[in-house]
Amino acid sequence: MLFGIGLVLFELNPEEPAFQIRVRAQRYLPDMFYVNEFAERIYQIMPAMFNQLFG
User: Fold this and answer.
1) Does residue 28 fall inside a structural domain?
2) What is the pLDDT of residue 2?
3) Number of domains present in the structure of the chain
4) Residue 23 domain boundaries
5) Who contacts 30 (Cβ-Cβ below 8 Å, separation ≥6)?
6) 3-class DSSP state of 51
7) Which of 10, 19, 24, 39 is buried deepest, with most CB atoms within 10 A?
8) What stretch of H or E contains 41?
9) Which DSSP helix (H) or strand (E) runs through 34?
10) Residue 43: Cβ-neighbour burial (10 angstroms; 0-12, 13-18, 19+)
11) 17 with 11: CB under 8 angstroms?
């Protein structure tokens, strides 16, 4: 909830694909401090993937 990301749980039944919305996503611009922090974490863990995505 801190980052405004929603959470949806799905049943693994193809005939009846039920779902529950546990937390609704928020509609606001993210705090750039956290955006930069997560971008740095991604770069530290997978620099090649980061460069491919954001190069």
Assistant:
1) yes
2) 66
3) 1
4) 7-54
5) 3, 4
6) helix
7) 39
8) helix 32-45
9) helix 32-45
10) middle
11) yes
Q: Quick check: helix, strand or coil at residue 20?
A: strand
Q: Tokens 């980052």, residue? A: 3
Amino acid identity for residue 3 in this structure: F
Establish if 47 belongs to a structural domain: yes
In a domain, 2, yes or no: no
Q: Find, among 55, 24, 30, the residue nearest to 42 by Cα.
A: 55
pLDDT tens digits, 1-36: 666 788 999 988 888 889 999 999 888 787 899 889
Tokens of 51: 């460069």
Tokens standing for 26?
């928020």
Q: Is residue 36 part of a domain?
A: yes
Tokens 């693994």, located at residue: 12
Read off the amino acid at residue 16: E
Dist CA 44 CA 37 (whole Å): 11
